[in-house]
Amino acid sequence: MKSGKPSRTVFVCQGCGYNAPKWMGKCPECGEWDSLVEERQSPTLLPGGATPAKQSRPVPIHTVEMDQQRRIKSGMQEFDRVLGGGLVPGSLILVGGDPGIGKSTLMLQILHRLADSKHQVLYISGEESLEQIKLRSDRLGVSSEDLWVVSEVDLESIRAVANEMVPNAMVVDSIQTVFTRELASAPGSVSQVREATLHLMHLAKQTGIPIFLVGHVTKDGAIAGPRLLEHMVDTVLYFEGEQNNIFRILRAVKNRFGSTNEIGVFEMRDSGLCEVANPSAIFLSKRPSLVPGSVVTASIEGSRPILLELQALVARAGFGTPRRTVLGVDYNRVSLLVAVMEKKLGLQLMNQDIFVNVTGGVKVDEPAVDLGIVSAIASSFFDKPVKGATVVLGEIGLTGEIRSIGQADPRVHEARKMGFTRCLLPQDNLKGLKGPVDIEAVGVQTISELADLLF
Length: 455
What we know:
This protein is an alpha/beta fold.
């Protein structure tokens, strides 16, 4: 049903979705230059017609009856962990990641697992033909009579196929290729992406179909399209990792049905993505023993402790300002810790190049690894390896004190499980360790005590 109001021409920012009646060189909302594109906008139509739904009436909250929805298990534990226990019927999930990172591979494997569990699933591709999808499925070993595929970009056709088939799960790859004929703007524009997401959101809620939307990312790493896109969906997942690294991390940055702290770890192989049930063993598998500049620490990702190797290299600067190169941890945090080391330990680091790296392509953003960073830098500076099988934990303050960290128990137990016999941690956490821990736990109060304990 078409609206009687005529369409109008507006200029829409392709970065944030800001509308302006005339062209401007710089978007006043997000500050992007030359991002306003002329688009012909039609009034937004309600999916299924322009007639509004029946008015809802408010009710007392204590009279609301809970409907415990059964989650659908995908058969891939790492994926279900990130979602909070499985797929919720009627949920809209946005999956973003760099080109070539493995988004389409992951979605095809998830649908294959669901199809093996006798769920009828639908894969809609707007970027690849059926022959290209078949080639990928043969490489991944994905084949099932309950896995249906279609190559389509027209929103109205996608809704018709979904309403006719009513699958148990559906993937739209990618949302930037879908367009509606109600709008004159090009596919991938802000208006088209917003309108397509709105219609698919209503489709998911009305039919109970969990829908995955695969989204492209910009050069800044954010999902392309208006920021409103992330607010419309129920869950936002980012697929992270370096293309030259075999490990991939699936991280939830928004989840209405579970925690946003959980991560899933995968390994990219020729046969597709494989789950990594014990990330600590994988990340430490190639760690050199008794080498200066290498220290093991423990990070908490959601409810899971993961042991990581921190590497540091300290070398005399050849000329000019010394370099500070940091990968996997916050650059400003490392600069702060280097200043504390110069002040409290008396180390002359102002004329040294310092390189810090977290192996495995993992990114850590919690202060509990501060003591590990300082230990790695000190080990490389003195050219002495850390003695024994030691794990280092702790946050460092500006005065050089070692502050307590959260969830020390699971970190220590993970270190014990991986065969480490010694753990340096804040003195306050030493008092609160629970349960039998057959590992030597050594409390540290200040950074000045570190040298005697490490080497």
